[in-house]
Amino acid sequence: MSTLQPGDALGASYRLVKHIGSGAAGDVWLAESTRDDATYAAKILKSEHANDADIVERFIRERSVLIGLRHPSIVAVRDLVVEGATLAIVMDYIAGGTLRDLLAAQKTLPAAEALTLTAQIFDGLTEAHRLQVIHRDIKPDNVLLSEPWEPGQTETVRVTDFGIASVVSARQRQTSGMLGTPQYMAPEIISHGHSTAAADVYSTGVLLYELLSGRTPFDGPGTDFTIAYRHVTALPPQLDIPRELWRAVNDLLAKDPRDRPSAAEAAATMRRLAPKYLDLAALTPAPVTEDFVEVERPRTMLRSDLLHETNLTNDVESSVAQHAPELGPAPQHTVLRPMPVARPAEPDEPVNHETSADEQLSWFTKKNILLGVSGLVLLVALVVGGIWLFTGNAADAQTTSDTALQASQQDQPLPTGLSVSRQATYDPDAEQITVEITYSTQRAPLSGQFLEVLPATDAEADACPAVSWEGVSAKHHQSSNSGIRADCGWQLDGVEIPANDQLTVTATLPGSVADQQEFDAWLDAAAEATNAALQDPEASSTAYPAQRLVDIRVETPSRTVSQTPLPITLIPVWPSGPDELNPLYQSPASGSPSQMLQNIAGDESGVRFSDNCSGAVAISSDGLTVTALSVTSECSIHASVGNFTSLQSSPLSITTRD
Q1: For residue 20, what are the CA distances in angstroms to 17, 42, 94?
Q2: Catalytic site residues?
């Protein structure tokens, strides 16, 4: 039972208001700032954590990382309090409850709603993983909603407890040997004892399975360790859902972490699938499984296997024991069957460099025979070539597929929030290819001109194919107008995609392919050519901003004076670098917003400034104008522009007038 009481001080800047919850790591209190009465949630860790010097040191060391983790789908950590026997994480207060509460009320969710919620979780994980932050304990209890859930909601998910998982992980490892909750633990955690970004993806896959079915895939009779070990040895019971949806769930639950998509790829998949299943009703809650299907020929996972992954952090590497425990004799041996190789001459065998007359004659005879055989082969080749020339390309006709084919391709999400997927079908009777290109957005609307490259199916063709378009106005891409070289490129005009929505356009072109492999390769080549043109570092151009903008730089003067508006310039960063000659936005603003800003954020409503200047600046109610108020030696301005949400200026100082 906590001895804390409402009204107690929490450090020097907060006051406890009321107790609102408890968890394995500690108690959660509603707290308010003594500076401005703002309300926060404060998770006060258990006393044993405060008495652990290693945890306190980790707590202080990770303060800047946790406070710097900013994303609309992540609960923002505002402060970490270390005072005496008190360790607390102060974060935004989210009032809509948890996904655990939602599951308790709804039991299961329709597929479209479950996919939309899960996509938002993956959005937050994408940003965290980019900063090398691993959550380690994704579950419904750690996913909050900004408001009580209603069908059709978007942008309501807030992932919490990054700080708890990071700070307390060492003690969890020492006490239980497991990191996380057994029902949601990735197989490599049981096999290796450490987490990677892929483990977060797996846990979110378990959460999606639970939203769809009402239970986790490996829950059943037995202890926590029994349940945890099923993640390694058993297959998830299949749900009564469409094949494509089940394949997406199954990909997230792959046993090998290298077979799982990244968080960004998973988010794009969730958003692509959600509109397809708007009419799919929620499942009846699944019964508890008594008998699990074992993995066929499970692979033995070595403890060092994942240490070679490129996405491991120093913290993960340090979590592996320096001295591996003695595991005893192996129950069976791995049998190696090496391919036979030619044995080189033993080094001590003498080499005879003298050649007899008979040996010289033998060599001469072999040479004549070799020349004769070569001539015969050449003659045969000439005959065969002549026959081919006179019989036409009948062989080519046999290499054209006479069956209908389908292919699909998915791009990585772009910094602007754009995701692109391509679905292609081949009609052998008409020798025609149809490509459906779907553009999906995240938190910001996107518009303007888009680029697509559609090469001929015949790699040796001199001309680009004729393409007819539906759902968009299109014309041939002109390199001279855009400064971007794109052979067989098309400029799609007037594209408009609302926030958290998608647009599908269709291209039809003549072509023929030999088989499925060639069709897949053609679609991949079209996507690669499009992306190569858009991301060409040699192209200095402002064309296609929704597809090409990679970052935004916040520029302020290094020094300004109090009681004056602070000039702020948003500089677009292209693959070729920052473009200071064509700013995206300038504050204070005058006139109409730039076309570039409208393309990536809608208009000025997609721009917001904030600060960490402790009251030294004031920001207008619309978030667009910053005014310097009082003297400070260090202040930085934060900005959110469309899907770019973690922008920050270099430090500046505010002084009085000379």
Answers
A1: 9, 10, 12
A2: 137
